[in-house]
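Exercise 7. Predict the structure of DUF4595 domain-containing protein from Flavobacterium hercynium.
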Amino acid sequence: MSGFAQKKPAAKKKTQPKTAVTKKEVVVEEVKPEKIKPDTLQVQKGKKYVFLVDVTEYSGQADVYVDKAEDNSEKAELQRNFPKENLEIINITKYTYILFENKQTLDITGYGKSFQALAYWGGKMDDKVQIKEGTKMATEFVGEQIRSKKESSYVVNTKKYKKEVASLQNKNKITSKSRETLKALLNGYTLPFSDIRSEEMALYQQGTAKLKTIDSYIIKNKGARTPLKSVAFDTDGLPTSVSFYDREGKSKGKKEFVYKDGMLSKIMKDDQEVSSVNYDDNKIVITENVGDANQTTIFWLENGKLLRKSYTLMADDKFSYMNNFVEEKFENNCVVYYINNVVWTRDCSGASNVYPFVHTYTSFQNKEVLQFRKSKIEKNNDRTFEKFYSTAERAEQNDFYKPWGTIHLDEMNLVEMLKFTKDNNEQTIKIDYTCYE
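Solution. The predicted structure, encoded as tokens:
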């Protein structure tokens, strides 16, 4: 039985030439990838079977890692939606010849070929094997076979998220709380460079000068400057443009901010509108198109922290499995970041401007700690702060702090220089300011 759709063959791995050395010459002999031996799977009657097929040319090789996360997510969907069906769910990740007891076959083999599909067999001798291209929406596919109308969670969530987004858009309720949230949002856009960590934020937001421009640079050998970011402000202190540069100093683009009655109304990029802005009391709603999807992000202030939640919804509902919902929550003095309702990171710190200022960052994968990072900032004097990183890799481990670098402020209480070590090299970032008189 055929019917599996092939996906485009994956890029072939580069093979290293095998070299044999003799007294007279060097012989270079190309080693061809070992062909994968197909498995044979015999399927007996009496159960309902679902096959999640994701096979590439290299899937069966021992040195090739196969990420089963997507298959497992569909498996979890099936288990959640059909708990009473006693489905036998089988992941097929290498070439396999499947032989059913009623003499039907599925041939998922062929050197150099790749396959992505779903298959279902009801487990009775008269049942035909059903096949569907792709590995997504397995719940809907199985539901059709057993006449049970079920929906994957990402389909259900898409309907829910669309209602939530519709209720937020086109609002225009501007209050004093709107202005407070906008100020915090704009502070984020106007940080001197892009990769400032959250534990350092307070140091960059305590100046009171009436700024006209901010320009940041990496200082290289012999004093050469490589630009990082440039920000321009109007006479009311509102940012009008932000220019970005890569580590080589080449332009990465420019954002411009448009205001109406002192409130941000839209964001332009390369003379094209990329984001529209609406207000709903303490909330700011920013909507933008991101390729084949629309993204709606809501910002608000809570306990002095700017928090957000964001919906990324594909324009075509058949790709609803790619939709994304992220949310930040303030929990136990920590900002906790969720993706699709699963905890991904946790940022925890003490009170701002109380030194030493200790901060911890934890990231998670499959509910297990992926990375733990702890730092502290100590105040030497009013203009000099030192930052340290702990060598601890888990919260329960003892701290041994190593120096990261020094942060210097100028006479206006603005950060003017960072000196730090990265990849065993000393680096310096310089920040210049101009002000309105």
